[in-house]
């Protein structure tokens, strides 16, 4: 890798860290979500150390975060020789898959059929509504999931996302969310000018740039209820940010775990063998 490319990579990583401070436990959750990809992989502790140290996280902070994630039953661990292997617990793995669907979907903003459900407030028995669902008022819900229009305890109206009033679309967007989205979009567009250099990056640096992108996009996306995103117009900043981020991530494909291990900590392959 040339000196110029190395400097560019360092500037990119430092810029992302400066603009979007990282919580260690949250970044570890991103690592497991992106590298696992629903395959129940076991990630060696030394690799986690390399990935976190690359963005300036100290070893003590990582150990504390791992302890917290184990205590909260996010992770389980086992020893193989001298190496600790970590994996997502079953329930957290399922949650991670759900989050990944939202993070990486390119089709959330296509015009959708929606259902407005007005439940009878005097009845304990309400219409069954599946996720995703948004409560827009007392006993009033909005969902893309099909619901029987005839119900003894609810009025169900069918509508389209483009028919909803602007006040409803904006009401549930958190204060500051669109500003944060604009800020992240600027960082994404700045990164797009470096795509020609991605092939020259080491496994570690390529994984780090991708993980920082996924991490910050994940934090943005999961701050909004899914239905809030579904009802926005195609020219909404969130849709632009989604399209530009996914375009960039296509040029930074998910890292191959074996290749990443060999590139960052070769002795693991001798100790662990086929334990991945």
Defining traits:
single chain; 276 residues; alpha+beta; Arc Repressor Mutant, subunit A; 2 domains; five-stranded antiparallel sheet; three-stranded antiparallel sheet; 12 helices; 8 strands; 51% helix; globular
Secondary-structure map with pairings?
Blueprint: H1 3-19, H2 24-36, E1 43-44, H3 45-53, H4 59-71, E2 75-80, E3 83-88, H5 90-104, E4 113-119, E5 134-137, E6 140-143, E7 150-151, E8 154-160, H6 166-171, H7 177-192, H8 203-221, H9 226-230, H10 237-250, H11 257-264, H12 267-272
Antiparallel strand pairs: 1-3, 2-3, 4-6, 4-8, 5-6, 7-8
Helix pairs in contact: 1-7, 1-8, 2-8, 5-8, 7-8, 7-10
Describe the structure.
The chain is an alpha+beta fold and 276 residues long. It has two domains: 3-107 and 171-272, Winged helix-like DNA-binding domain superfamily/Winged helix DNA-binding domain (Arc Repressor Mutant, subunit A, Orthogonal Bundle), CATH 1.10.10; 113-163. The protein is built from twelve helices and eight strands. The protein has helices spanning 3-19, 24-36, 45-53, 59-71, 90-104, 166-171, 177-192, 203-221, 226-230, 237-250, 257-264, 267-272, and strands at residues 43-44, 75-80, 83-88, 113-119, 134-137, 140-143, 150-151, 154-160. The strands form two sheets. The protein has a five-stranded antiparallel sheet with strand order 5-6-4-8-7. Strands 1-3-2 form a three-stranded antiparallel sheet. Strand 7 and strand 8 (154-160) form a beta hairpin. The radius of gyration is 22 Å and the shape is globular. It starts with a helix and ends with a helix.
């Amino acid at each position: 890798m040339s000196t110029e490319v190395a400097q560019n990579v360092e500037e990119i990583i430092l810029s992302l860290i400066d603009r979007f401070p990282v919580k260690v436990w949250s970044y570890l959750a991103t690592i497991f979500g992106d590298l696992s990809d629903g395959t129940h992989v076991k990630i060696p502790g030394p690799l986690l150390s390399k990935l976190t140290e690359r963005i300036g996280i100290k070893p003590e902070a990582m150990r504390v975060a791992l302890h917290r994630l184990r205590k909260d039953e996010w992770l389980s661990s086992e020893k193989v020789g001298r190496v600790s292997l970590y994996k997502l617990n079953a329930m957290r793995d399922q949650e991670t898959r759900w989050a990944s669907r939202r993070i990486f979907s390119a089709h959330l903003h296509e015009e959708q059929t929606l259902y407005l459900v007005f439940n009878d407030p005097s009845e304990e028995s309400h219409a069954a509504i599946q996720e995703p669902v948004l409560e827009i008022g007392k006993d009033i819900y909005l969902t893309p999931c099909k619901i029987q229009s005839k119900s003894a305890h609810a009025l169900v109206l069918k509508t389209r996302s483009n028919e909803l009033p602007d006040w409803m679309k904006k009401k549930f967007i958190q204060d500051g969310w669109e500003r944060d989205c604009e800020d992240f979009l600027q960082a994404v567009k700045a990164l797009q000018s470096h795509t020609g250099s991605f092939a020259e990056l080491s496994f570690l640096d390529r994984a780090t740039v991708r993980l920082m992108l996924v991490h910050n996009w994940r934090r943005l996306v999961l701050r909004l209820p899914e239905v809030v995103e579904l009802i926005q117009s195609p020219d909404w900043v969130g849709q632009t940010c989604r399209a530009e981020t996914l375009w960039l991530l296509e040029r930074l494909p998910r890292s191959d775990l074996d290749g990443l291990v060999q590139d960052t900590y070769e002795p693991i392959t001798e100790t662990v063998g086929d334990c991945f």
